[in-house]
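Worked example

This section walks through a single chain of length 137. The input is the sequence exactly as stored; nothing has been trimmed or padded.
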Amino acid sequence: MSVLAEADSEDLQSFWERYEPKPAYAVVHGPEVGLLMIQARIGGEGERFYVGEATVTRCSVRVREGRLGTAMVLGRRPRHAEIAAVLDAQLQDPRKREHLMATFVDPLWRRKQEAERREAGRVASTRVEFMTLVRGE
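Given that input, the structure is written out below as tokens.
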């Protein structure tokens, strides 16, 4: 689900348009946009504190076979959340899982990994190394 939720919306839509046959489904809830309060801990320890809010879109669908799929994505992306929810329901079917992993999840994961590598390279090119000199007595 994290791969589907974090995927680029245009990439997800592009894969969805080529996917056949599209499953019949009914929207149960949403897609709707809301806010989540983000909490953190310094260093992963200590007392929690509020960092801020994040806009999210969530959606729940039921496919014809009766399985319920849900998705929550960052930002205002109702179509993205709906597609991800349908795929969540379809991925629960063992007969469809392998095909969907090869069609959607694996290619989207590879694109995400490549984007992260490009970003790491871009950031690394601006890295500054500091060193401290200590004077002797």
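What to look for: The mean pLDDT is 90.
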